[in-house]
DNA sequence: AACCTATGCAACCGCTCAGGC
DNA sequence: CGCCTGAGCGGTTGCATAGGT
C-alpha cells in the first residue's frame, strides 16, 4: 500500500486531532527514536514531546507489538504452537501471561494465532484441544468447560480457575494454590459418586495427588470433569 | 481480468487494576 | 477511604491480501 493511501485511510480524529489507523514509517521512526532515548512508559507525554498525533495507548501498542527490538517475527514454530496450546490449557485466555513463556512474541500475536487456530479447528469439527488434554480454566470463558467443585455448607472456598490441567483418567494434578480444603465432586462411576474431602498441604507443589480418605489402598483418584457452570452452584 | 470470499493481522475500544493524592 | 489517572489486558473490528470462481 502506498503511503498516500495510508494517509487517506488513517482518519484524523477531529475532536482531539489524533490520528487513527495504520502507522506510517515516519511515525514509527519518531516513536522508536523517542523510546530508545527515554525508555518505554509515560506514553501520554509522548504526544507532547514528539508531536506525534497518536494517543498514548496507540503509542504503547505500536511499540509493544511492532517496534520493540526483541520481537520475533514470522510464523509460529511447531514448538511455539505446542507451547501456546499447553499454556492455554493451563491458564485460558491469559495472553499477556503467556508471553512470559514465549519470548519475543506479543500477547496480540498469541491471541491472533489462537483465534485463527480455533476457527480452523471448529471449521473441520475438531475440539479446542488435542485429544487427551482437558483444560481447567476460567469460569467466564464460554469456550471451555469447567471442572467445578461442590461446596459443603454452601461455603464457596474457591474455584478451579487457572489451577489445574486435567487429563481424563489420569490422576488429578494440582499446581500451587492457596485453597486449603474443598469438597470435590468426582465421578468415577455414576453410582459411586460421592463427596471427597480434599486436604491440600500448605505448600502444595505441582504434582499433588488427591487421595480418597475412604480409599484404604490409598490409591490416587482418577477424575473426570463434571461439566457444570460455576454460577449454577 | 474482474469480482467475491476467506483469512490473517494490526489497531482500536472498553474495561480493570494499581498507584498516587 | 474515595477519586483520579495512567497502564495494561482481552475482545472485537476493520483492512489488506491471497485464493477461488
From TrEMBL:
<feature type="domain" description="Myb-like">
    <location>
        <begin position="68"/>
        <end position="118"/>
    </location>
</feature>
<dbReference type="InterPro" id="IPR001005">
    <property type="entry name" value="SANT/Myb"/>
</dbReference>
<dbReference type="GO" id="GO:0003677">
    <property type="term" value="F:DNA binding"/>
</dbReference>
<keyword id="KW-0677">Repeat</keyword>
<feature type="domain" description="HTH myb-type">
    <location>
        <begin position="15"/>
        <end position="67"/>
    </location>
</feature>
<feature type="compositionally biased region" description="Basic and acidic residues">
    <location>
        <begin position="1"/>
        <end position="12"/>
    </location>
</feature>
<protein>
    <submittedName>
        <fullName>Uncharacterized protein</fullName>
    </submittedName>
</protein>
<feature type="region of interest" description="Disordered">
    <location>
        <begin position="1"/>
        <end position="22"/>
    </location>
</feature>
<keyword id="KW-0539">Nucleus</keyword>
<dbReference type="InterPro" id="IPR009057">
    <property type="entry name" value="Homeodomain-like_sf"/>
</dbReference>
<dbReference type="InterPro" id="IPR017930">
    <property type="entry name" value="Myb_dom"/>
</dbReference>
<feature type="domain" description="Myb-like">
    <location>
        <begin position="15"/>
        <end position="67"/>
    </location>
</feature>
<dbReference type="Pfam" id="PF00249">
    <property type="entry name" value="Myb_DNA-binding"/>
</dbReference>
<keyword id="KW-0805">Transcription regulation</keyword>
<keyword id="KW-0238">DNA-binding</keyword>
<dbReference type="GO" id="GO:0005634">
    <property type="term" value="C:nucleus"/>
</dbReference>
<keyword id="KW-0804">Transcription</keyword>
<feature type="domain" description="HTH myb-type">
    <location>
        <begin position="68"/>
        <end position="122"/>
    </location>
</feature>
Amino acid at each position: 500500500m502506498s503511503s498516500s493511501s495510508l494517509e487517506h485511510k488513517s482518519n484524523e480524529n477531529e475532536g482531539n486531532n489524533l490520528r487513527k489507523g495504520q502507522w506510517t514509517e515516519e511515525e514509527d521512526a519518531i516513536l522508536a527514536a523517542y523510546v530508545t532515548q527515554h525508555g518505554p512508559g509515560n506514553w501520554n507525554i509522548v504526544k507532547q514531546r514528539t508531536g506525534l498525533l497518536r494517543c498514548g495507548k496507540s503509542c504503547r501498542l505500536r511499540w509493544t507489538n511492532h517496534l520493540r527490538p526483541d520481537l520475533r517475527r514470522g510464523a509460529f514454530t511447531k514448538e511455539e504452537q505446542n507451547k501456546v496450546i499447553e499454556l492455554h490449557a493451563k491458564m485460558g485466555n491469559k495472553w499477556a501471561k503467556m508471553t512470559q513463556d514465549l519470548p519475543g512474541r506479543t500477547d496480540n500475536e498469541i491471541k491472533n494465532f489462537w483465534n485463527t487456530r480455533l476457527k480452523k479447528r471448529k471449521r473441520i469439527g475438531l475440539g479446542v484441544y488435542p485429544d487427551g488434554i482437558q483444560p481447567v480454566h476460567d469460569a467466564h470463558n464460554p469456550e471451555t468447560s469447567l471442572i467445578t467443585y461442590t461446596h459443603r455448607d454452601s461455603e464457596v472456598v474457591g474455584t478451579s480457575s487457572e489451577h489445574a490441567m486435567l487429563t481424563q483418567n489420569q490422576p488429578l494434578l494440582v499446581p500451587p494454590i492457596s485453597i486449603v480444603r474443598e469438597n470435590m465432586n468426582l465421578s468415577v462411576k455414576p453410582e459411586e459418586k460421592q463427596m471427597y474431602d480434599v486436604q491440600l498441604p500448605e505448600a502444595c507443589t505441582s504434582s499433588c495427588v488427591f487421595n480418597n480418605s475412604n480409599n484404604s489402598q490409598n490409591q490416587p483418584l482418577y477424575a473426570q470433569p463434571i461439566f457444570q457452570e460455576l454460577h449454577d452452584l
